[in-house]
Structure formats: structure tokens, C-alpha cells
Design goal:
Blueprint: H1 8-24, H2 35-54, H3 59-85, H4 91-117
Helix pairs in contact: 1-2, 1-4, 2-3, 3-4
Length: 118
């Protein structure tokens, strides 16, 4: 039986969350409960909502949770851009995270299209 752990979107969003945790560990102490915490929460929300949606009974419910994941991804993207502007992320690190987000965004969109055709 296949689960959320078999989905590429879940696997890649887990990797993204891992990377966010690594990068935000270097944020200033003053941002521990600010931007770093918000980024971590948004990053964790993406695979969490994929997992919760996959466990639902209907494709419609699953698609709704994928939309929530897309929203969390947009939030994380905004926070990543702000982190770069504030100098908390090196340009190459920001580029890496944004690239991973684009991959996950495309995978979520593809999965949502598939579910809507079902």
C-alpha cells in the first residue's frame, strides 16, 4: 500500500524543511523566536499537510490539503527572500532554498491536477 512517504512532493518537501532548519540555525539569536521560527513552521507545514491530505478519504480533501501546502510554501518563499535582504542568508543559500521550493511547487501543482482529474 502506498502512503505519503512514496510521494516525491513529500520527500522533497522534507528535504526542504531539513535545509531550512540547517540554515536558520545560523540566524542571529534575536531572530530565534522571530523569522527563524516562522520559516521553520512554514517549512514543516508543507510535508505535514501533504501527509495529512494523503491520509484523507477523498481526492477532493487531499487536493485541499495540497492547496494549504502551496500557501505554506509561498509563505516560506517570502521569508526566504526577506532573510536574504536582511543578510541572514548567503545568496547561494537563498538560491538553493528557492530552487527547492520551485521543485516542490511544481510537484504539488502536478499532484493537484492529477487529483482533480480523478
Amino acid at each position: 500500500m502506498r502512503t505519503h512517504k512514496d510521494l516525491d512532493a513529500w520527500k522533497n518537501s522534507m528535504e526542504l524543511a531539513h535545509e531550512v532548519y540547517k540554515f536558520t540555525a545560523n540566524y542571529p539569536q534575536s531572530e530565534l523566536y522571530g523569522l527563524a521560527n516562522q520559516m521553520r513552521r512554514a517549512a514543516v507545514s508543507v510535508p505535514s499537510n501533504i501527509a495529512e491530505g494523503a491520509a484523507r478519504v477523498s481526492a477532493k480533501e487531499f487536493a485541499r490539503f495540497l492547496c494549504i501546502s502551496q500557501g505554506s510554501l509561498a509563505e516560506l518563499e517570502t521569508q526566504t527572500i526577506l532573510s536574504g535582504r536582511l543578510g541572514f542568508l548567503q545568496p547561494q543559500d537563498s538560491t538553493k532554498l528557492l530552487g527547492e521550493m520551485n521543485l516542490v511547487r511544481a510537484q504539488l501543482a502536478g499532484l493537484t491536477r492529477y487529483l482533480k482529474r480523478k
